[in-house]
Design brief:
heterodimer; A: 468 residues; alpha+beta; PmbA/TldD fold; seven-stranded mixed β-sheet; 10 helices; 20% helix; B: 453 residues; six-stranded antiparallel β-sheet; 37% strand
Chain lengths: 468, 453
């Protein structure tokens, strides 16, 4: 396939056109994304899909207003037209900035990609799916359906702005997931497992897809025996990896500077305060090699960073994109300016968000919990940052009775309030692990994110089941 | 962009050129879309952002030797379309042979003629759109002294034209326009903050009710101030239309022929059985022009039609695209749903519960002890449409002796989809059009578990 990233002269001319009628800042974001996915479902290779999305988004800032336009036409004329549209949308005004000479900036990639997915025969990708399907079905005759998904993407981005920045990145990601359905006397149950990394096909040198398949199938099978989840407030222990979703929702979103600026976060104005139990250190790290949310540069051209958000329970900083950093008179963003594609404006987003290890033995945490719920696998969540109320789903969970894991329980949501839950964390294990690859949605845009935690306990969370 | 600039005929002509390349024994289906969007966001009396964009997309499906391949691209450039066709053909070689695969065949159903496109919207100048967003924000800020901020106030419109052309003789072109206002409000009292939202949706600007959107956003946020956690118990819940629409969307997903064939539907094998309360009638009717999901044709270019899914509580049918229809020994119900970047799935487009006679306040008056749920969160994480387990975060108001009482938050409501449908006690008369697959209506459901303190 042809790829025609515009050269520096074209980018320079585009930036000049964007600022011709005024404006304080202009930016061109070019993206060329190739993706492929293969789905094995119902015992068949159901589809192989190839995708291509390329184009440019142009942003012009003028005073407090931002104009944005995008185009799939990467010719000089196409970019020029989009630049004029963005300029018109920015409502002329502000200063008359000029565009600085573009200078190429390099940022280190978090890791190398050794086997480019588009160089791998499609037959090899399909063969992995078949292996996984067979492994899941071999777990038991109660497994009634299996769906396996392979996906890869290669995203080339190029950012140029009127400060003279010119930076590019190649972002390669590979994903594999298995979903199983088990059927028994009590109806159907589901189990899922997935792995996703910012690497190429070498992912499968270290990840055995049959293990993923067995994990997914066992989750579904175990739940055939599951009881309805309990209802009400109780201690909740979350297994290694899984708790990342809790922090992503309980405080991650609330530490995004755009929501802080709009006074839509319970964490506004609380820098330097104790916001969590002193055992909690929360980090957002876009440099974390091979993880699902890593990159060399963000979608505004800024190198990824490791940002400590909460240190020993004290709130240290928020996450920033270019716009919010400028408005707060900070010299730079924190490398958290991201967008779903060239068709979107960037905003503040998380990368890989995790809690550092504590020092408890995970088994002791469970043994010290007389009664409650143990959540082994989570299924996503949602937060209202203004109130701090958040939910997350449990897709593999057990009752804790007399300090031991007992009966599996059915799927459901848990609900809590972010600032309260951070203070109610009273045990942190020494078994840190990253969780499943996620897609974080905000204001209609989805971006890949990672998260991780050791085993942890929250003294009190409301479990949303039906059992008394 | 002007009325005819969307170029529906040009899209279909491009599709013609692609399907003309079908080899003997090969089927080709081309989906083409062209859309233009404007999005204005206001904040603190100024335009925070103004985005203006046009987008193109092409998706090509090839079926040969009973194998299917697909590819898509975000461009109508002839060279890229040619690459996309080549990629789809190459992909087909790796699919599993399946005798039921194939693009849709013309089925003789007349395509309904519907007024879904307002040329006036295309001609609306940017200043008018900006004024709408600014006015929306102002109306919310001035709506109540406890409103302390507006997180976002947006005016959004979209004009789109799409074409589906197949080598089997389907050639459909459709276009539509839509616009909406949406606003997220913040209300504060002391240290406490609550949020609300309001919206209005239409095909043209004249359909939008800015005052109503603003009033909803104010009321929803302000009435939650002072909210606490409710005690855990089993009780009757009243779903606000917005919540009902989300609930119906999940119910609708379990009725897809694809879920049935793949044994992932909890209603498989239950056709003709009573699955809901005796007054519960559920239809999917994209031919209803007033529905947000109204459409003349489905994702495979077949005419849409009215499908009755449940009648008086009895399960009537599942929805099908051409593949699931053939494999189930029946035919497509005109229910293929897709974007240009994917193969056709099966789904609802315009779900509606036939409304009842009672207004929402009459329904509330009939509840001695219960909860009005005005918002839910985490439907994607706490509802399992395969097992039927239903658990969602919620906020709303207590109902005591038939009247709305204290606000409540940070609780969940839980049951199963199977039980909730049977436990529906009443359907309101307040059919509400929402920017979703389903229309909303007030719904009373008995015996749901509320988990709080």
């Amino acid at each position: 396939m042809t790829s025609t990233m515009p050269d520096a002269d074209v980018l320079d001319a585009t930036l000049r056109a964007a600022l011709r009628t005024g404006g304080d800042f202009a930016e061109v974001f070019v993206e060329d994304r190739r993706s492929s996915r293969a789905r094995f479902d119902d015992g068949k290779v159901e589809e192989l899909v190839s995708g291509r999305l390329s184009g440019a988004g142009i942003r012009v800032r003028s005073g407090s207003s931002v104009g944005f336009a995008h185009t799939a036409d990467l010719t000089p004329a196409g970019l020029h037209n989009a630049a004029r549209t963005a300029a018109a949308a920015a409502r002329a005004g502000g200063s008359q900035a000029s565009s600085a000479k573009l200078a190429r900036q390099q940022a280190p990639a978090p890791n190398e990609v050794t086997v480019a997915p588009d160089a791998v025969a499609k037959a090899r990708k399909v063969a992995l799916l078949q292996l996984a399907d067979e492994a899941a079905r071999a777990e038991g005759s109660a497994i009634s359906q299996v769906a396996c998904l392979y996906g890869d993407s290669h995203r080339s981005i190029l950012v140029a702005n009127s400060d003279g920045l010119l930076a590019s990145d190649e972002q390669v990601k590979t994903l594999f997931s298995v979903s199983a359905v088990a059927v028994g006397d009590t109806g159907m149950q589901t189990g899922r497992e997935s792995v996703g990394r910012t690497v190429g096909f070498e992912l499968f040198d270290t990840v055995d897809v049959t293990n993923l398949a067995r994990t997914a199938a066992r989750r579904a099978l175990r739940k055939l025996e599951a009881r309805p989840a309990p209802s009400g407030a109780m201690p909740v222990v979350i297994g290694p990896g899984g708790g990342g979703v809790l922090f992503h929702e309980a405080c991650g979103h609330g530490l995004e500077a755009d929501l802080i600026a709009k006074e839509a976060s319970v964490f506004g104005g609380r820098i330097g305060e104790q916001v969590a139990n002193p055992m909690v250190t929360l980090i957002d790290d876009g440099t974390m090699a091979t993880e699902w949310g890593c990159y060399a540069i963000d979608d505004e051209g800024r190198p990824a960073q490791r940002n400590v958000l909460i240190a020993d329970g004290v709130l240290m900083d928020y996450m920033w994109d270019r716009l919010r950093a400028d408005r707060a008179d900070r010299s730079t963003s924190s490398g958290n300016g991201r967008r779903e594609s060239y068709q979107h404006l960037p905003m503040v987003r998380m990368t890989n968000t995790y809690i550092a290890n504590g020092d408890s033995e995970p088994d002791d945490i469970v043994a010290d919990t007389p009664n409650g719920v143990y959540v082994a696998h989570l299924g996503g969540g949602q937060v209202n940052t203004a109130t701090g109320d958040f939910v997350f789903g449990m897709t593999e969970a057990y009752l804790i009775e007399d300090g031991r894991l007992t009966a599996p329980i059915r799927d459901g949501n848990l609900i809590g309030n972010g600032p309260e839950v951070l203070m109610l964390i009273d045990a942190l294990g020494n078994d840190f692990a990253m969780g499943s690859p996620g897609t974080c949605g905000k204001d209609g845009q989805g971006v890949p994110v990672g998260d991780g935690t050791p085993t942890l306990r929250v003294q009190r969370l409301t479990v949303g089941g039906t059992a008394a | 962009m002007h009325d005819d600039d969307l170029g529906g005929e040009a899209l279909a002509a491009l599709g013609d050129r692609v399907v003309a390349q079908a080899a003997p024994g090969e089927q080709i289906e081309v989906v083409l879309v062209h859309s233009a969007e404007t999005e204005v966001r206001a904040w603190e009396g100024e335009v925070e952002s103004f985005a203006s964009a046009t987008a193109h997309g092409v998706g090509i499906r090839v079926v040969s030797d009973q194998r299917q391949g697909f590819a898509h691209a975000g461009s109508h450039d002839e060279a890229i379309v040619a690459e996309t066709l080549a990629a789809a053909r190459d992909n087909a070689a790796f699919g599993t042979a399946d005798e039921f695969l194939g693009v849709a065949e013309p089925d003789g159903m007349a395509v309904p003629e519907m007024d879904l496109y307002r040329p006036d919207l295309a001609a609306t100048d940017p200043e008018t759109k900006i004024r709408m967003a600014l006015e929306l924000e102002r109306a919310v800020r001035e709506g109540d002294r406890r409103i302390c901020g507006v997180e976002s106030a947006d005016y959004v419109d979209a004009l789109s034209v799409g074409a589906v052309v197949t080598s089997t003789g389907i050639r459909s072109v459709g276009r539509d326009s839509s616009c909406y206002l949406s606003v997220y409000s913040l209300a504060a009292d002391g240290d406490e903050t609550q949020t609300g939202f309001g919206f209005s949706v239409g095909r043209g600007i004249e359909d939008l009710d800015l005052q109503q959107a603003a009033e909803d956003a104010v009321e929803r946020a302000v009435r939650l101030l002072g909210a606490g956690k409710p005690a855990s118990r089993r009780t009757t819940v009243v779903f606000d239309p917005w919540v009902t629409a989300q609930f119906l969307g999940i119910v609708g997903s379990t009725l897809s022929g694809e879920a049935v064939l793949k044994r992932r539907s909890l209603f498989a094998d239950r056709l003709g059985e009573t699955v809901a309360a005796p007054f519960f009638t559920l239809t999917d009717d994209p031919t209803d022009t007033a529905a947000f999901g109204a459409s003349e044709t489905d994702g495979e270019g077949l005419a849409t039609r009215r499908n009755e899914l449940m009648a008086a509580g009895v399960l009537q049918r599942f929805l099908h695209n051409s593949y699931t229809g053939r494999r189930s020994g029946t035919a497509s119900t005109g229910s293929a749903v897709r974007g240009y970047a994917g193969t056709p799935g099966v789904g609802c487009m315009a779900l509606t519960v036939v409304p009842g006679d009672a207004a929402p306040d009459e329904l509330i008056a009939g509840v001695d002890d219960g909860v009005l749920v005005q918002g839910v969160s985490g439907l994607h994480s706490g509802v399992n449409p395969v097992s039927g387990d239903f658990s969602t975060g919620a906020e709303g108001l207590l109902i005591r002796r038939g009247e709305l009482a204290e606000p409540i938050r940070e609780f969940t409501v839980a049951s199963t989809l199977q039980r909730m449908l049977l436990d529906v006690e009443a359907v309101g008369s307040d059919l509400t059009r929402l920017p979703m697959t389903a229309a909303g209506v007030t719904l009373v459901v008995a015996d749901v578990t509320v988990s709080g303190k």
